[in-house]
TrEMBL record:
Keyword Membrane carried by entry: yes
Keywords: Coiled coil, Kinase, Membrane, Phosphoprotein, Transferase, Transmembrane, Transmembrane helix
Occurrences of domain Histidine kinase (ranges): 287-500
The protein's name in its UniProt record: histidine kinase
Keyword Membrane appears in the UniProt entry: yes
Gene Ontology biological-process entries: osmosensory signaling via phosphorelay pathway
Record lineage: Bacteria, Pseudomonadati, Pseudomonadota, Gammaproteobacteria, Lysobacterales
Coiled-coil region(s): 225-280
Reaction catalysed by this enzyme: ATP + protein L-histidine = ADP + protein N-phospho-L-histidine
A GO term from the CC aspect: plasma membrane
GO molecular function: phosphorelay response regulator activity; phosphorelay sensor kinase activity; protein kinase activator activity
CDD domains: HAMP, HisKA
Domain called HAMP: residue spans: 180-233
Subcellular localization(s) per the UniProt record: Membrane
């Protein structure tokens, strides 16, 4: 079967040559047109500006001596410039002093001059130029001229079309002759390739007729046929080995699927066990809370009743014992409340809404027993947050309560500062005090439950507050850390994502 691909290949070569020629021609024409239009614009605006400056200098004395006739004669010189449509000279107060219009142009002049500047209105260029003499503004020159940019563009379009047609005709004639030299030997190779494909006869070889790139193509084509003939035999041998490998891989994939299914089943079982354990732990927490609260209330109540009923019969030590019993019962109740609040943090969902952190911090400060109006407490401008306001309120209450409590030992010198800043994708909040501080060697225990760096006799507390703070911050995708030095106070820093995207990425 004879292969006839000459028409398609020739058309492709001719198309490539014509497209290349057209592209190069368009690039050259566009570059030339853009350069000429820019040069025209610069030279024309410079010429108009110069003309305005000359008119201003020539008319400065006329304005100074109120000689409108001289100014009008200066403007009449513009008749030698046929592109000038109209011109006018205004006084410093904006009154028309002298004017000129091209013959046949009956348009009116602006009532008042504008500030120095130039603008293009369609095919016209309008210029305002101040007349200044010895740093004194005497008036304004107004010019309106033809702006033939559009006409020049159309002229270039016509020239470009004619040049393109001529260049494409020349390129077509040359490409028709040149493509024959290239396509003839290539089509001969294509014919042999088609016969090899149809007859599966890899012993066929193409005839090498030249030593150029086409001859190299023929030599490479013949080598390829020899390599194909050699590898065909090797391929048949490797197919059998490949079939065995496919069978083994299929068995391995089936085993992997079985193991994955078994693993998923184990994960489901473990998840169910953890959920059951959480439910049991929650039930246990509420049960312990209820069972402990009643005895504690009884202890506190009976101690109070005993102190009131037997008050006259009790000495000072007995009263102190009863006060200690009541205080310990109340402290145990607070500890139970803190533990329940800590356990509930992992179950309640986080409801994120825009939060005014200044209002939240000031409300928490009042609840903690302080006030921004006090001399030793200051709250700076805090960036807003996108978070759960109830949870963040607890964070501010705990941090500010600690700051006020541990700085109270400084008396009148006590100081608590709250500040914040937005830094990229996070908002940073800082609570700083000049209280007792702590040793940074024990900082790893700071956010643990029941971990206290000061004794109960020195400062009251349950040791759960900072653990609650850290857990709330972590649930918002943020982090908290502290810096301190004994006797010099402590600084707690919180970072929270300040965008919805950042919070979702860390959730």
């Amino acid at each position: 079967m004879k292969l006839d691909l000459s028409s398609s290949l020739r058309l492709k070569l001719i198309g490539v040559i014509l497209l290349t020629t057209l592209t190069a021609l368009i690039v050259a024409l566009v570059a030339m047109v853009v350069y000429d239009l820019r040069a025209y614009h610069r030279s024309w605006t410079a010429d108009v500006t110069t003309q305005a400056e000359l008119l201003g200098r020539m008319s400065a004395s006329a304005i100074a001596f109120d000689d409108a006739q001289v100014a009008k004669e200066n403007l009449e010189l513009l008749r030698l410039r046929p592109h000038m449509q109209a011109a006018a000279i205004y006084t410093a107060r904006g009154a028309m002093f002298a004017s000129y219009t091209r013959a046949g142009d009956a348009r009116s002049f602006p009532k008042l001059p504008e500030a120095d500047g130039m603008r293009i209105e369609g095919q016209e260029l309008v210029l305002y130029k101040r007349i200044v003499n010895d740093k004194e503004i005497l008036g304004t020159v107004y010019l309106r001229t033809d702006y033939e940019m559009l006409n020049r563009i159309w002229d270039y379009v016509g020239i470009a079309l004619v040049a393109t047609v001529i260049a494409m005709l020349v390129a077509l004639l040359m490409s028709t002759h040149l493509q024959r030299i290239v396509t003839k030997p290539v089509l001969a190779i294509a014919g042999i390739a088609r016969e090899v494909v149809e007859q599966k006869d890899y012993s066929r070889r193409a005839e090498k007729t030249s030593g150029d790139e086409v001859g190299l193509l023929v030599h490479s084509f013949n080598d390829m046929l020899g390599e194909i003939e050699r590898r065909t035999g090797e391929l048949e041998v490797s197919n059998d080995a490949l079939e065995r490998q496919v069978t083994e891989r299929t068995r391995a994939e089936q085993e992997i699927l079985r193991l994955n299914a078994e693993l998923e089943d184990r994960v489901r079982q473990r998840t169910a066990q953890l959920e059951a354990a959480n439910r049991e732990l929650e039930a246990f927490s509420f049960s312990v809370s209820h069972d402990l609260r009643a005895p504690l209330r009884h202890i506190d109540g009976y101690a109070h009743m005993l102190k009131e009923d037997a008050g006259p019969q009790l000495d000072d030590d007995m009263r102190r014992y009863l006060d200690t019993i009541g205080e310990s019962a109340r402290r145990m109740g607070v500890l139970i409340d803190d533990l329940l609040a800590f356990s509930r943090l992992g179950r309640n969902p986080v409801s994120r809404v825009p939060v005014d952190m200044n209002a939240l911090a000031e409300r928490a400060l009042r609840e903690a027993g302080g006030s921004e109006g006090e001399a030793h407490v200051s709250v700076g401008t805090l960036p807003p947050a996108f978070a759960d306001p109830l949870l963040l309120h607890q964070v501010w209450v705990n941090l500010l309560s600690n700051a006020l409590k541990y700085s109270a030992t400084r008396g009148a010198e006590a100081r608590v500062d709250v500040s914040g800043e937005a830094d990229g994708a996070v908002s940073r909040y800082v609570v700083k005090d000049n209280g007792v501080g702590f040793d940074m060697r024990y900082a790893d225990k700071l956010f643990g439950v029941f971990q206290r760096l000061h004794s109960q006799d020195e400062f009251e507390g349950t040791g759960v507050g900072l653990a609650i703070v850290q857990r709330i911050v972590n649930r918002h995708g943020g982090r908290i850390w502290a810096q301190a030095e004994p006797g010099l106070g402590a600084t707690f820093t919180i970072e929270l994502p300040n965008t919805v995207t950042a919070m979702e990425a860390t959730a």
